[in-house]
Amino acid sequence: MGARSSGSIFWDEGYVRSTQRPLNSLVFILLPLIVYHACALRYGTALLAPRDLARLLGYFGATAWILPPLLILVVLALQHVVHRYPWRVQISALAGMGAESVLWVVPLFSLNYVTGRFLVAATTQPGVALRSVLQAVGAGIYEEFIFRLVFLSLSLVILVDLLSLRRDIAAIAAVVAQAVLFSLYHLSDQQVSGGASFPWSPFIFRTLAGVYLGGLYVCRGFGIAVGTHACWNLCVALLAD
Predict the structure, then answer these.
(1) Three-class SS of residue 152?
(2) Main-chain dihedrals φ then ψ at residue 10, nearest 5 degrees
(3) Residue 156 CA: distances (Å) to CA of 14, 82, 162
(4) How far is 38 from 225, CA to CA, in rounded Å?
(5) What is the CB neighbour count within 10 angstroms for residue 233?
(6) pLDDT tens digits for range 124-165
(7) Has residue 177 got a pLDDT over 50?
(8) Distance of alpha carbon 241 from alpha carbon 231, whole angstroms
(9) pTM, rounded to two decimals
């Protein structure tokens, strides 16, 4: 057999590998992240993930509003440095990541149908609709950062590097664990504690979606996982029954 072409879309130096590089993910999410925070400063936001990340940083005395988004960018940049990737942004990879993000949403509609959840009709109030769109984008970035990039990556380090588990078994265990926590994160305290009826259909859907997004993160990288999550959230915000 002949040698693999380094320019192939499928091999190590081609499209698949380049979309997984942290620098491309950083550039891919940069503009949405800036727009989200600019609008959040102007209109406010009720999104939990950036608020909780800011609270965590506040425990260490870091209270500036810019620190949560800056943390995401710094972590991605450090990942790029650690892996010694070339500092080259590939425009074709960014375009492909956007297209993939839209395509990978399709299986989520199937999960939505199977678990009995339905999209909520979008509001006709412009201000509220704008906030819904902004939160859709912000949640895609911050929830993927917390549950996939941080929790899933740390779980793999603990299970594989410290406990010496097989990587495939550790990956499955970590993906399932973060998916359950991701789903529970969207429930109220009363629903979790038993003070209100437990919403099984949404819980099952979000758990399966968490497994799916975790698999995307492992196989396709952070940027595409963020894009897919944000696209799904946009569908929920904008599409009617």
Answers:
(1) helix
(2) -105, -15
(3) 26, 17, 9
(4) 23
(5) 20
(6) 444 566 778 888 999 999 999 999 999 999 999 999 999 999
(7) yes
(8) 17
(9) 0.89
